Amino acid sequence: MKAGILYAVCFYGCNKIDYKGKDLLFILKEGARRVGATITGETSYDFYPQGTSAVLMLAESHYAIHTFPEKKKAVACFHTCGNIDSWEAIKVVAHLLEAEKIISKKIDFDGYYFTLPET
Q1: pTM of the prediction?
Q2: Which of 13, 47, 53, 105 would be 100's cystine partner, CB 3.0–4.6 Å?
């Protein structure tokens, strides 16, 4: 089993960004379904006056997204273990947010060990 893949993603120029929690959860679920991930839980929080955070718990790990409507931007992480690669899920989310641009960083944890500096 793979140790895990993490995508850190920024979605820019989102024309559909002023979603509430239930809507963002729907978007994340659509992405998860596309890659065959197993959804085990969900939560969201709507900020006042704007912005939302949503987390989808997966048997394979999690997806999380945070929106910034005033900047037409969303930032997200898509972390999975096993044989699931979330790139197709990211494309689904980008399409549903109507993002004009995506910037992402992929970290593959297989064979890598991370340590924190001593304090």
Answers
A1: 0.88
A2: 13
